[in-house]
Amino acid sequence: MYITVIxxxxxxxxxxxxxxxxxxxxxxxxxxGTNVWVKLELFQKTGSFKVRGAFNKLLSxxxxxxKRGVVAISGGNHAQAVAYASHVLDVDAVVLxxxxxxxxxxxxxxxxxxxxxxxPTIGIAFEKIKNYEAEGRIFIHxxxxxxxxxxxxxxGLEIMEDLPQVTDIIxxxxxxxxGGGVTTAxxxxxxxxxxxxVETIGADAMSQAIKAGHPVExxxxxxxxxxxxxxxxxxxxxxxxxxxxxxxxxxxDEEAVKELQFILERLKILTxxxxxxxxxxxxxxxxxxxxxxxxxxxxxxxxxxxxxLCKYVSKK
Length: 316
Fold this sequence. Notes:
- It is a single chain.
- With 316 residues, this protein is an alpha/beta fold.
- It has two domains: 3-49 and 146-314, Rossmann fold (3-Layer(aba) Sandwich), CATH 3.40.50; 51-140, Rossmann fold (3-Layer(aba) Sandwich).
- Helix content is 49%, strand content 16%.
- It has helices at residues 3-13, 26-32, 50-60, 63-68, 77-89, 103-111, 122-134, 146-162, 177-189, 205-212, 235-244, 253-267, 273-284, 306-314; strands at residues 22-24, 35-39, 70-73, 93-98, 115-119, 138-140, 168-172, 194-200, 245-251, 294-298.
- The strands form two sheets. Strands 1-2-10-7-8-9 form a six-stranded mixed beta sheet, with helices on both faces. A four-stranded parallel beta sheet has the order 5-4-3-6, sandwiched between helices.
- Helix 5 links the parallel strand 3 and strand 4 (93-98).
- The chain is globular.
């Protein structure tokens, strides 16, 4: 992927997305002993970064392709993004979702106008994609698509423009498309920036792939961070992670929930575990930072239901 493709994506999607804030946090700076900014992407339309990629893919389709409709697969934020972008652009959308998907994600996807096809597991859902493609629908992959990745990479351009002095970024890794796009944009602009990935135990397809040297299929997604729950990464996203990431930190759900509560109580922001895990990773990396570092935590999504929040906190 080239930086020019990401810059083209920014021009294409700019009328349809928000440029989300990058704010300095005195609380997190004291907490981590360094200079901390938070990229508040959870304030993006549909509550996550995913609309960037969804719009870039849909806007790149021909009029004839849009008439055929699209199909997507997601346990959360990609579903809402494709549904919303399809609604805005008047494209018929079907979204396959695993049965374990939180109800608030299912309802939001339906409310944006997409048809939801619930399947027992994410693996079975991926298999059924072939049936929809045979009908003529265009598959919008949640992460392994250069156009989707380029759209996600526009977030990296925003970070570099808003904080040229950034030295470190911590970003969540699911299937690796978000990380691949953002790291490409950042490294092309300032190669010295250190970028750290983070996953949760039970949704750690990238760290397992790095250890194995090839994509690994997870038998199940057991983490509560469902929006990190790709059954495997791709060869493309694995290669970008190995090229651009310092390391992929894997944290337990308990640490993600602990920091989710800290962020809510101190910053007054409700993140998903898939976003709060960046702070959990930062605490594990604390020795890497000092007063000369400028660290960005990417809060990638905030689509957490009140019911799930109460359930997570009650288990602590």
